[in-house]
Amino acid sequence: MLEHDVRTRRSAEDFPRSEHLAWKIAEIAADPVAVPPETEAMVINRIIDNAAVSAASVIRRPVTVARAQALAHKTPRGATVFGVDGTVSPEWAAWANGVAVRELDFHDTFLAAEYSHPGDNIPALVAVAQQLGVSGTDLIRGIATAYEVQVDLVKGICLHRHKIDHVAHLGPSVAAGLGTMLRLDPETIYAAIGQALHLTTATRQSRKGLISSWKAYAPAWAGKVAIEAVDRAMRGEGSPAPIWEGEDGVIAWMLAGPEHTYRVPLPGPGEPKRAILDTYTKEHSAEYQSQAPIDLARRMRERIGDLDQIATIVLHTSNHTHVVIGTGSNDPQKFDPDASRETLDHSVMYIFAVALQDGTWHHERSYAPERAHRPDTIELWRKISTVEDPEWTRRYHSNEPAEKAFGAKAVVTLKSGETIVDELAVADAHPLGARPFEREQYVAKFAELADGVVEAEEQQRFLSAVEDVSATKSGGLGALNVRVDPRVLDKAPTVPSGIFR
User: Fold this and answer.
1) pLDDT digit string, tens, across residues 444-473
2) For the domain 2-278, what is the CATH superfamily, name and number?
3) Locate the MmgE/PrpD C-terminal domain: which residues (predicted)?
4) Which H, E and C letters describe 365-395, residue by residue?
């Protein structure tokens, strides 16, 4: 990997395009390097993972709305929408499928200087691959690039500190991945990356206070925008440049300002793209920084015994966990039983309380209004707080995989004054956890979440198709769509009509 210094440059400064971050990314995307077998295997795992969480969310209201919008843009030759037959314009397929993937906050993650869900790249690439009859091999190449670019940007450039939403790294990664998949030249990819970044920088209010369904829509929007950016670039349209480093660019006015230098790692020429191997999926449908606390709560409940004897629980954790999903956020909504599912998903206090009481976590039952309103849950929930521990923050930012941590130390003080202490650095499903996810676990997650949603024969057909995706010839990627039992779709909420018909 090569480290690149990225900082603001004056318009009058001699700053050749070859030094622009967008150009360096474009060159990586255009590099025809082979995909390592382990990268290809993980790409397949993540396609399965996305299908699993899409099956679980398919009749939720935000997904139903996005699907209705997409189906208003049918075309004889296009891309598929998860769960249904027929084809639509690819940017709309990416939109609908992106919402389905993101809705339950249940797919893969990568955390470093910034947050990310790199699986958000996949719907846009699959949609364009289906539209243009791309081969399975090229789809895998494109997904490997998209993961590489997003992970490397997440390692090098913090967005949340400046209240910019993390999808600002997703637009460029989708554009780069499409560039690889379609074998575009660096000039075209460069223009698409610049447009995609320019159009996907938004504030983090989508993940603050009373969180709405837009949290699920925001990544899908980035994918849709990136597809349109690539289309324009392929037709010869340019972009703002230099988009990151310009005097009025993203770093100068949205991030750390003209005095700051970021260091972004990127593969060197001919270096394989392996970043997907640094990412990790979720066993539980909750914000990633609550994965280890859920497993910790499940482990501690027997030691604690009667939960009524608890006086307080303090979770000692990283700055990120404390200020995003902990009491350091200063969001009263994180203690509100009437809060949205999206808000409860970002309350480690609620999540730890329910995991302690139930010894498990479920993507629907754990968020049900009646579950959040249980008096004993509310009482326990309000006894829980978080504090930042510098050591957990240091480990969160560590570049050493063996010590990088996303967990917490729980200090449970009983009414008697006795304390019970335990800690967990990474979730059980993490690559360094107690039960790392392999192909078997991804398939099991799909089977569990597709049960009662996708018929058994269709489940097996999809799994066979995705496991053989590298051999799929041009025009055959429609097989990656999962058809949902129509009786399930009939249970989706009725949504009002909008502009699109």
Assistant:
1) 999 999 999 999 999 999 999 999 999 999
2) 2-methylcitrate dehydratase PrpD (1.10.4100.10)
3) 284-468
4) HHHCHHHHCCHHHHHHHCCEEEEECHHHHHH
